[in-house]
Amino acid sequence: MQSQFSAQALERMHQTGVIAVLVVDDPRRAVKVARALLAGGVSIMELTLRTSAALECLKAITTEVPEMMAGAGTIIIPEQVDQVLNAGAAFAVSPGTNPVVIRRAIELGLPFAPGVLTPTDIDVAVHAGCRELKFFPAEQSGGLSMLSAIKAPYAHLGLKYIPLGGVTTANLESYLRDPDVLAVGGSWLAKKDSIDAERWDEITKAAREASAIVEKVRAKNHNV
């Protein structure tokens, strides 16, 4: 089974290591956030569809900050796949595994990573055509020990995981050292209060700290 993501996209996710996950309701601020993250070395973000202006924000980022790989999150109905693709999304993710949504993403050629938490979720996602899976909520459900347990029966398939939920700079390195973790999703990189107060330097600083951890892990793995 072939990945929905291109080899280039997978390599970029692996090297970047962290995907900034954010909620933003103002297109101007969305562009500023994207630029602040880039300044700190984070070039991939997931814009969640949790506000009425989310699609407009996504479009602003893909138009004005093309060097940012911008995806969409909280895709829970098939119509949203069409909407985010029209807004320029490079990929999409969902909190759970819905075969109907996955089918629409595959039909339109939009790389998709569904949320999984149990072996059944993984089984459904794999049979629906997915090889990259979002492990959510990561820490709240048992963290790396839980991930290790549920992924074991599927190890021979070469699946890759993107843990999200409770990941911070404190445990980022541990997650990245798991060979099956493609990248991690982090809402700590661009917190809502920082965005609302337009403290872009805080976002750049958080991105830079995360990027340094990624670089350390990837360099060490490369030298092994």
Describe the structure.
By secondary structure, the chain is of the alpha/beta class. The protein has one domain (7-223): TIM Barrel. It has ten helices and nine strands. The strands form three sheets. It has a four-stranded parallel beta sheet with strand order 3-2-1-9. The protein has a three-stranded parallel beta sheet with strand order 6-7-8. It has a two-stranded parallel ribbon with strand order 4-5.
Topology:
Blueprint: H1 7-16, E1 18-22, H2 27-39, E2 44-48, H3 54-64, E3 69-73, H4 78-86, E4 92-93, H5 99-108, E5 112-113, E6 115-116, H6 119-128, E7 132-135, H7 143-151, E8 160-163, H8 172-176, E9 184-186, H9 192-196, H10 200-223
Helix pairs in contact: 2-3, 2-10, 4-5
Short description:
The protein has 224 residues and is of the alpha/beta class. It has helices at residues 7-16, 27-39, 54-64, 78-86, 99-108, 119-128, 143-151, 172-176, 192-196, 200-223; strands spanning 18-22, 44-48, 69-73, 92-93, 112-113, 115-116, 132-135, 160-163, 184-186. It contains ten helices and nine strands.
Structural class: alpha/beta
CATH fold topology: TIM Barrel
What's the average pLDDT?
97
The whole-angstrom Rg is: 16 Å
The order of strands across the largest sheet is: 3-2-1-9
The number of distinct helices, counting runs of at least 4 residues, comes to 10
Helix percentage: 40-55%
Which ranges are low-confidence, i.e. pLDDT below 50, for 5 or more consecutive residues?
none
Straight-line N-to-C gap:
29 Å
- Reported CATH architecture: Alpha-Beta Barrel
CATH superfamily: Aldolase class I
CATH class: Alpha Beta
Query: What is the total domain count?
Result: 1
Element string (H = helix, E = strand): HEHEHEHEHEEHEHEHEHH
Largest β sheet strand count, sense and barrel closure: 4 strands, parallel
